[in-house]
Batch of 2 targets.
Target 1
Amino acid sequence: MKTLAWAVGLMLTLGAGDQALMAAAVAHIAIEPESFDFGRVRRNSELHKEFQVRNLGGAELEILEISTDCGCAAALLGEGDRKIPAGGRVTLQVRLETGEQSGRLDKRVFIRSNDPERPRLVLELTATVR
């Protein structure tokens, strides 16, 4: 009877291990930093910042779509950088044009990926235009 109980316990433990392995075998997106303040800038400026997009998961991260909330911002990945291996990282280049606006500028970059926990990551950009 003890042998049967031990075997059942071992099977349950192995099953839990398989679940842990399956959980680790998904993509997990992270971006560094998740927000950036350009500080005080002049009108009609073109601002640039590079962000590191990292895959902290155990499976390939696929960037499905990148968009912005206005035409004054653009976010670009290099060719072939939409698929990030487990543990890998790529550089996201962001450009923000201030135009004729003045005052506080709040813009967002949206990154859609196959990360099951964070399928849509929002990158916050701010500046004070004078």
Note: The chain has one domain: 2-129.
Target 2
Amino acid sequence: MTSPEEDAERLRAEIERTREQLSENVQALTYKADVPARAREKLQDTKDAAQDRVRQLTGQAAAKLPEPVRERGQQAAVAVRQRPAPALAAAVAMPLLLLLVRMLRRRRRWAAVGAAGTPVSTSAPSRRRRRPRSVLPAR
């Protein structure tokens, strides 16, 4: 038989192990229940992997470029870092310009809708060939 002190010590050790297991289970459940935090972690991992891949591919592409082209690209990058406003303006203006051109073309096409409700070609009008003046009958 065991003494009451040994039984108490064994019970304390078992209680401590149970507490540790319970603590681990609670932490695991908390982690599983915190979906937004897991999504942020996954997003960060994906972002880091993409950035690493971009750095790798950029390095490979830069190694294949001729030296003058590489220097010119580095100069352009430095210029954009020093004064980002013109580059940003160009980056915003180009898609807007393309959108405006597309809208104007579409408007022009539908403005020339024929009687049947179908768009009429907006290309330059075809000109009939005229006979040279020398062939025309005299008036």
Note: The chain has a mean pLDDT of 83.
